[in-house]
Amino acid sequence: MESRPVAIRRHLIDYLAGTISLDELKERVIDATWDVQDAAPSDELQLAYDVQLVLVEESSGFLTRDELRTDLQELVDRAALHAHT
Fold it and tell me: Domain limits at 52?
């Protein structure tokens, strides 16, 4: 079973690659993070909260789809750096 950060990153990559829709991404992120505050290490919590924040900002009209994609790509890149340190 993959770790939560790996699962979140995979969902983001799937969305950025056009494999899943934004609605599917939101559903998968909710499923992957609904209990994150219960036992997650701080870096895992930060990734989950950052992804949730970006999705809420887009849903609320504060980000365009292009800005959403840019912000999500930055989170993917940052998660990849954490995975290798």
Answer: 4-83
